[in-house]
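As a warm-up, study this chain.
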Amino acid sequence: MTVRVMLISPALNAALREARFDGDVPLDAAGVRRARAAAPGVPDAGLRLHGPSGRCAGTAGALGLRTVSEPAVRGWDMGRWSGRRLDEVSAAEPAAVSAWLTDPSAAPHGGESLLELCSRAGRWLDSLGSGEDREGGNASEVREGGKASEVREGAEGREGREERRVLAVVEPSVVRAAVVSALALPPESFWRLDVAPLTVTGLTGRSGRWNLRCGHPLSPAPAD
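Now compare it with the structure written out below.
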């Protein structure tokens, strides 16, 4: 079965506007407004997930999605740099930042290296493409008031279809890592990929063979 994975990048928050290594900062009012305005453009999917960060969860909620938190698509672990500004870290630890930017195996911050991030994103993609994900492709469990309910597949996700659709709201770093892994690009290509807020990046195929549809906006965003 072919799998279509649609990765939605979350709305901006204060941390990204300040070029910080995001320390799980939630959406601000402007980010919520932009996500709500983009909601009509969200594609249908049988399985709907979000990364566990406050920004991804808040974006999914503002888009009107009922999603399940998925640890496998958590944001890049930046260790002790988390929450700090890039310019501050660059001034205090220039050699460490240089190693982080040039050596995919380096993790001077004590978190994940770029290679580890890309490997994690690739394993998650391949689990979807081989049918090994935990939800089995038919329903997603959502907790509401302590009770379990199900997010059922839409018309495009009914039994017997040839294409399975998975939607996930994930951090830009995870989108970039997934593209690098899916297309077997050199790890250094990660730094050459730009992912704008509230865009969809599509990967279609199966384990070991993916095609890329580059990011496109969900819908025009209003002025703040």
